[in-house]
């Protein structure tokens, strides 16, 4: 059974960092991880971009970013 994990963040880069580390260190690997940021200005988005680029290829990053940007514009 696939589990969905959702993290909501706003200007809490240290909490975001700890939460992401906790999620990726879980033994269950059948999950989707959704992170929603409310327009942080504390470096949270930069940290998230850096994390994604470190763990995914650039083309995967572009797909993730493009999908999220499309979802944002659809509001």
Topology:
Layout: E1 3-9, H1 13-24, E2 31-37, H2 44-55, H3 58-73
Parallel strand pairs: 1-2
Helix pairs in contact: 1-2
Task: Give a brief description.
The chain is an alpha+beta fold and 75 residues long. The protein is built from three helices and two strands. The longest helix is centred in the C-terminal third of the chain and has 16 residues.
Could you list some keywords that capture this structure?
single chain; alpha+beta; two-stranded parallel ribbon; 3 helices
Give the terminus-to-terminus CA distance: 30 Å
The SS-based structural class is: alpha+beta
Helix fraction by DSSP (H/I, runs of at least 4) = 40-55%
How is the largest sheet built, in terms of strand order?
A: 1-2
Sketch the major β-sheet: 2 strands, parallel
- Oligomeric state, counting identical vs distinct chains: single chain
SSE succession: EHEHH
| Whole-number mean pLDDT | 81
Contiguous low-pLDDT stretches (5 residues minimum) are: none
Describe this structure in words.
This protein is α+β, with helices and mostly antiparallel strands. It is 53% helix and 19% strand. The protein has three helices and two strands, in the order E-H-E-H-H. It has helices at residues 13-24, 44-55, 58-73, and strands at residues 3-9, 31-37. The chain has a two-stranded parallel sheet with strand order 1-2. Helix 1 links the parallel strand 1 (3-9) and strand 2. The protein is globular, with a radius of gyration of 13 Å.
